[in-house]
Amino acid sequence: MIDIKDKKVREILAEIHQGMKQKIKRGNVENEEIILENRIFNTICQDFEIGPTKCAIELNKEYDYSLTGDQVIQVFRSRRMANPIERREILEWASEIASLFAKAMAGDNKSYEKFETLRREAALKNGKKHDSQERIAVIMIYAKFPEIDIYDDSRNLQYLGNTLAKYFFYDLADAVGNIYGFQTFRNEKKKSFNNQDKISHEQALRRVMQLENTLERTNTMLQELQDEFDEQIEASKSKELAEFFSKLNSEKYGCILDELLVVKKGIDELKAHNYELPVEINGLLIMVKKLIQFVRDSHIDPIMKINSTKIVKASDVEFCNYEGTAFKNNDDEKKVKVISPGWVYRDKEIQISRPKVKEEI
């Protein structure tokens, strides 16, 4: 628990709030995808063990969404957090960051130094920095220590994407360092310059250094914002492509993707038996062939093999549309036939439609 009545803590929170106001001015356009991502991050920060389906249920209750576990998984995939082990590593790193930050706010210099070191390290144990780790760290701080939210900054935090959240995270670190006079990372980079200062010029030089740091950070942030915007445009294109094929395979339009596989299989079987197809339908066959090629070139792949049979347990069909009798327990097995293979956009691992399986009795 952080003592928000402490004078120094109040000063830190006031400085942090100024940082938030600046970030909101730059990111004043509400992005529903970013808001959903941040709400999911906040949920998993409060419960490391929560699964996608339960996470969806919690969000549906709190924000009146109609999310499924599949949709939460898709968010994890888009943010490269689908691996539960790596997701746990990021959350544990962020939790330690939050704990050190709380001690630093109380004036503990050693904790601040550890915080400064840890926040520049990779959250993943494979040595790679995750592009959302700073964003998750700052969400974790507010999740673990909600008492610091005296300016309602956590509400604005949900609007910040990776770049703005990262620089707001830097603001948190600098606020503690500035109020207590701790050695911050930015000042550390200028240490050799400071050693040459004349005492009579100390205040002026410190101001110049602050302005240089602000300019450098602003320029870097603007470039990263542009990069993030380009990524969002690319992600939007992928989403539109996925939505197009999802409609194409909807029941409204006769599950066209599924039907293409059925037609292709039928044609292959006829050819295997040396059956000569009527010339009148050659045009139709060419169209089917071109449609199949279009689907493949768009990197849309079936998840399962249509009409195949499998022995499954309840966990195996959790993310399928299952038709049949209820499973008695987790070990209960049933024989099912794949009615619809389900489809996925290969490049982005976006699920177009769920596989459909039916119990064979």
User: What are the low-pLDDT stretches, counting only 5+ consecutive residues below 50?
Assistant: 189-199
Portion in helices: 55-70%
The geometry reads as: elongated
Q: In sequence order, what are the helices and strands, one letter per element?
A: HHHHHHHHHHHHHHEEEEEEE
Distance between the termini: 58 Å
| Spatial order of strands in the largest sheet | 2-4-7-3
Largest sheet: 4 strands, mixed
Question: DSSP strand (E) fraction?
Answer: 5-15%
Write up this protein.
By secondary structure, this protein is of the alpha+beta class. The chain has 14 helices and seven strands. The protein has helices at residues 7-26, 32-46, 52-63, 69-78, 84-105, 109-118, 133-144, 153-157, 162-180, 185-189, 191-194, 202-248, 256-272, 282-297, and strands at 300-302, 309-312, 321-323, 334-340, 343-345, 350-353, 356-359. The strands form two sheets. The chain has a four-stranded mixed β-sheet with strand order 2-4-7-3, with no helix packed on it. Strands 1-5-6 form a three-stranded antiparallel β-sheet. A hairpin with a 4-residue loop joins strand 5 (343-345) and strand 6 (350-353). The radius of gyration is 27 Å and the shape is elongated.
